[in-house]
Amino acid sequence: MARKKIREYDSKRLVKQHLKRLAGIDLQICSAQVTQSTDFSELTNNEPWLSSSRLVVKPDMLFGKRGKSGLVALNLDLAQVAEFVKGRLGTEVEMGGCKGPITTFIVEPFVPHDQEYYLSIVSERLGCTISFSECGGIEIEENWDKVKTIFLPTEKHMTLEACAPLIATLPLEVRGKIGDFIMGVFAVFQDLDFSFIEMNPFTLVNGEPYPLDMRGELDDTAAFKNFKKWGDIEFPLPFGRVLSSTEGFIHALDEKTSASLKFTVLNPKGRIWTMVAGGGASVIYADTVGDLGYASELGNYAEYSGAPNEEEVLQYARVVVDCATADPDGQKRALLIGGGIANFTDVAATFNGIIRALREKESKLKASRMHIYVRRGGPNYQTGLAKMRALGEELGVPLEVYGPEATMTGICKQAIDCVMSAA
Amino acid sequence: MVGSCEKIMIFYFFAFFLKLQGGMSNELYNTIARVTDGIYEGIAIGGDVFPGSTLSDHVLRFNNIPQVKMIVVLGELGGQDEYSLVEALKQGKVNKPVVAWVSGTCARLFKSEVQFGHAGAKSGGELESAQAKNQALKDAGAVVPTSYEALETAIKETFEKLVEAGKITPVKEVKPPQIPEDLNIAIKSGRVRAPTHIISTISDDRGEEPCYAGVPMSSIVEQGYGVGDVISLLWFKRSLPRYCTKFIEICIMLCADHGPCVSGAHNTIVTARAGKDLVSSLVSGLLTIGPRFGGAIDDAARYFKDAYDRGLTAYEFVESMKKKGIRVPGIGHRIKRGDNRDKRVELLQLFARTNFPSVKYMEYAVQVETYTLSKANNLVLNVDGAIGSLFLDLLAGSGMFTKQEIDEIIEIGYLNGLFVLARSIGLIGHTFDQKRLKQPLYRHPWEDVLYTK
Fold first, then answer.
1. Looking at chain B, which residue has its C-alpha nearest residue A100?
2. How large is the greatest C-alpha to C-alpha distance in chain B, in angstroms?
3. The organism sits in which domain of life (chain B) (predicted)?
4. CB contact at 8 A, A103 and A35
């Protein structure tokens, strides 16, 4: 299971649509999404309430604490909303140490309210935790002792009885409505493979539950069975993570293949670059460079696994080598072509793609004084390593090759010594 | 590689997120084998958010196995699984040395939240960081190295301490039994070759796109090839000139169907009406094709070719056949007469006279027909005889076949292939027709059977 955050707009869309189907509850919420490409007159045609209601606007960017950060505007008309958006679209904000531009807003009717309730459902190892509080809103963390929680084991069904401890202290006139609402949201949560839902707060409008703010995460490995239910769902990158063109290229490549191809530039001027097979090993290579005290020299994090074919490896390796060899500065650099001892992957086959890329980039490798360190084991590794050795001689690029007799991360130390040595 | 000794257990937390991915477990087994006397048991739990069994489940289990003397754990950032082990260590539930390392110390280098290769390895809260977990494990009494690179030394030192304390008597390395080499690996590395069980020379599906006789599918489509060209490639392994492939197509069109009453169609209709599927209905019709139904094209070609090549006159040929008691294949029709020729034969002859460089075999067949018509009015050249003789002209006249190749084509029975292929079109049509009409089970009427003794 991979938990993927979705936008508030999508969370509300899914809950509204499926609460009606699964629980017969017709939420009266309306939301509109505003981005760079939004045409306000077209949007108003589709969502007529925009021009007839007082509105709320806030960024829909997977970060919280928007109210506390002054990013929520209340009780505006449409023109004021447009102005608010215009003034902030594309501007950089810093949230929790991550900086990034605001690209997406959510606009909703302004709903004056007194009561703020809190509801969250979290999928855990042995079941789901459901939390509810009569004291929701931006002070929820300060009022956490007032939150009531139940744990519903995976094999148990949601019943009014299971739900009772959450709502026991509510006044009788709202208890039934809120109980039904919690059970309905839980049904949506399960049916749509949510792994997390939080409404902070929801209120009652004319006695009917009305979520004001919502966060959601879906289990994206369940995408295969939710194609229709999820509709046109977007899994945005975490806030602050802006893909460079090279990262974007690899990201697109990754989405098209059954293999896994990951590439993140950490420091474009770094002198140690990695291209490592395997999700576990790639992390350990990056760790080791850092643990040896040279995190600042680490150019990137890169991982390929799941048996990418030669063509995919070639395209991938081209990008890594291009970034690693960019802007030569006369100083030595190192490229770690690493990996553990594979179980199934044909080492020679995946190396073919890397070798082709290295051959294409011969002059760049030389211009950037690149030293290449290879370490890999697994099926057919002898052939793969022999091809690498031959390539080093053919290109005249310093290239050292190790197999499973050497430690996996030994080449990290060698690379550091190499780039740190004078001349 | 790995000793067979029962002293060390490795517990390894990592790995299977949808894709099988065990590079790190192999890696760690290798490392442990290098510095100790062997592994008792190794487990890869998988890097998923909720793995089926947890780290502490296994550590506690291994703590209760007397043969296991020390435990090696490799964890990953993300999740809180390692803390159940920390608790177990703190509570003194584990009394064997635990060497542990949690990977992912590099997460702090990333500016935003990053999903690493594994679903569970998501850098989030501080508690879930590799640094925090390593520190907690260390505080709880586990042996935690300063980096992954130092893990091997930590394992080695812990093992040696146990040996010194007399808790382990290292077991002598046993020479592992010779395991036969895996054939696929040996083939890939070019050390052996295995006999193939099948040879194929007409098509190849291994490349980017399938090839028919070396011609890629894209050329076939882009250059507007027809069915005749495809037959030419797959049956004759060469690109025949357009007039030849056009002739093949005409043959197929002419032979595609001949009404519901002929044996093939009749069988197919009866089978389809018995509720059988398409393939059963089709083959029940095809199975009637043979010496009496549709199978005369090859024989016609064989006899005409033999007679012509030996220089027999039409008279000598027909009379020699008569003497042997063989009806001349390709001659004779149930309905058609000398003054009412088969239209299909006329069409074929017209096409060949217009397009073929030579029609000597056909002319010979016409001479034979002229003679047989003098004997009886229904002994006309039929469609089998026309196709058979014209195919001889195609093979000989195109200049693309050697004499041996022509003999082989006639001998193998290529020309009946044309009839089988063509008639399949009609038989499939009859099957669909009966199904569409929802025709019930066919039963032959009693009145139509002569019951006798």
1. B112
2. 115
3. Eukaryota
4. yes
CA–CA distance, A49 with A213 (Å, rounded to integer): 19
Question: What SS3 class is residue A98?
Answer: strand
For chain A, what percent of residues have pLDDT higher than 70? 99
Q: What backbone torsions phi and psi does residue A73 show, to the nearest 5 degrees?
A: -115, 130
Q: Which amino acid is at B381?
A: L
Catalytic residues of B: 118
How distant is the Cα of B21 from the closest Cα of chain A, in angstroms? 7
Per-residue pLDDT reduced to its tens digit, B142-166 = 999 999 999 999 999 999 999 999 8
Residue B11 has which token pair? 């517990």
Its CATH class, for the domain covering B7-164, is alpha beta
Q: How much is the pLDDT for B357?
A: 96
The strands making up A32-35's β-sheet, listed across from edge to edge, are A32-35, A104-109, A55-59, A73-76
| Residue carrying the six token digits 């993927």 | A4
Say whether A96 sits in a helix, a strand or coil: coil
Pairing verdict, β A370-375 and A399-402: parallel
Set of chain B residues whose Cβ sits within 8 Å of the Cβ of A307:
19
Amino acid at B42: G
Q: Is residue A220 scored above 90 in pLDDT?
A: no
pTM of the model: 0.71
Q: Residue A410 in 3-state DSSP?
A: helix
Question: Which residue on chain A is closest to B17 by alpha carbon?
Answer: A1
Chain A residues within 8 A of B148 when measuring between CB atoms: 284, 287-288, 291, 408-409
Whole-angstrom distance, CA of residue A374 vs CA of residue A335: 8
Confidence (pLDDT) at B114: 54
Query: Residues B298, B410: contact at Cβ < 8 Å?
Result: yes
Cβ of A383 and B19 within 8 Å?
no
Q: Do A98 and B15 make contact, defined as CB atoms within 8 angstroms?
A: no
Domain layout of chain B by residue ranges = 7-164, 185-223, 246-436
